[in-house]
Amino acid sequence: MSMMVPDNDWGRRVGEAFWNEWQSQGGEITNAVRYNPDSSVSNAVQTALNVSGERARLSNIDALFLLALPEYARQVPPTMDYYYAPNLPIYATSHLHEGRLQTRLDQDLNDVVFMDIPWQIPDAAVGGEEALPFASTYQTLRDESDASMFRLMAMGVDAYELATRFSNLGAMNGLKGSTGTLYLSDDGRIHRELPWAKFQNGVPSPILIPNLNDSDE
């Protein structure tokens, strides 16, 4: 596994957390790159993929973990293609997804796998928007709210639902919320599982892979 995270406090926190969790699961990080978000994407990709000449050397790399904002993230897959690594899987956080359809811009993210809250990936929901948790509230807030606040509003919706159902939450098989499936653990904490999606033709689509339907982010 190779890893690309920005060279700032955010990147260091996420990078360290991912590194520790990946190793605890028996994985190995072979390359870790802290990139400058204002510098060339090419330089970071070359280091992450052991590029020699114009070709990536992937003998000890089976995937790339990417932490990046949309503008930077969109440049990574085409750069990997240039260095002859078009089939290397890319796994990313929700930060590369702006939460609105931008098909032309997001074509460059095709085949990138990521997680996000259900309300941010309605096209990846089985059944579409109508099947989203609290669909009527979703439609109202989507049309009336600032897109930059949408995730926070989704969290507020789930906080309200948890407050009204908390006494019965332990008996439920998870609450299908706007921010994911919420579970009450034995220690009294709320744990969240998020859906996986993959960009196809510039649009988030569901991943139909056994055992890769939900996971923690």
TrEMBL record:
Gene Ontology cellular component terms for the protein in this record: periplasmic side of cell outer membrane
Name of the protein in question: LppC lipoprotein
Species assigned in the record: Vreelandella sulfidaeris
Any GO BP: peptidoglycan biosynthetic process
Keywords: Membrane
SUPFAM superfamilies xref list: Periplasmic binding protein-like I
Gene3D superfamilies named in the record: 3.40.50.2300
PANTHER family: PENICILLIN-BINDING PROTEIN ACTIVATOR LPOA (PTHR38038:SF1)
